[in-house]
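mind reviewing both lines:
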Amino acid sequence: MPPNLPFPNPPFEFHHVVVAAHPQVKEAQAEGEAVAAFLQRHGVDAYAGLLYEEELRRRVREGQADLLIALGGDGTMLRAGHLCAPYGVPILGINMGHFGFLIEVEREDWPHAVRQLLLGEAWLEERMMLEAYLHRGGQVLQRWDVVNEVVVSRGQYVRPIKVTAHVDDLLLARYVADGLIAATPTGSTAYALAAGGPILPPELRNILLMPVAPHLSVDRAVVLSEGSAVTLIIGVDHEAVVSVDGHDPVALEDGDRVHVRANQHVLKFVRFRGRGYFYRNLTSYMNWNPTVEKESHRPHDAAK
């Protein structure tokens, strides 16, 4: 954690930057090229490309980047996190979308923010990630790195599923619900929040379990102890799926087990504001819903 100062000592250092634009975000590519050109004028090795471009991803994988600047919305930050976390590459987000809870810098403010970065006036925030495994019989069918959440849920049929949750091999609860969310503190402000769950501050390392539309069963969120793992055992005679961070769902069968635990990798975000930024953002966003009302005043403006 950084001290209660504008930035810690020693400052965050970087020499090679990749600037990643989401390909479906309007004007993000041109803005990314402008960011890279700005860095190059200040003597920094910078490469601009699209988030899913192989050359950009290769640079991250092969250690040719010690910072990634992502231009887009919170979805872009999630995808950047999946790319960067296994290689320890920090991420700075520039908001090109409508909703940027994870993003540090608004589009019009990036020249000032990059100058701060060059001066060392930044710190790294580390956030917990999860890893999830899908077991069927004695085989591991799939593994995921998780930024926000793992969701087991019903498919297209409006029928609940049965999920038995074991924490550290001890029975916690049997759920009958539309779904069950296992979320990180980062994910506590995403789907879990929409389902009525609590908000966890980002520095915690606890898993949050949140049922979705429970049917005459446990209807409260549970925050697990730090270091605990959870196994979700699926009981269905109809369609059920598991989805990670909003990716395409994977079909589940009766008896499948989804095991979720803390990941050895952490997600690193570049921050300029003090530690209280999270609570200032939180109160601003709670009073601003871009899907209901368009406002010229953005939450980040109030949080500066």
User: Anything to note?
Assistant: The chain has two domains: 16-121, 129-264. DSSP finds seven helices and 16 strands in the chain. Helices lie at 28-41, 54-61, 74-84, 110-118, 191-194, 277-286, 299-303. Residues 22 and 76 are 6 Å apart (CA to CA).
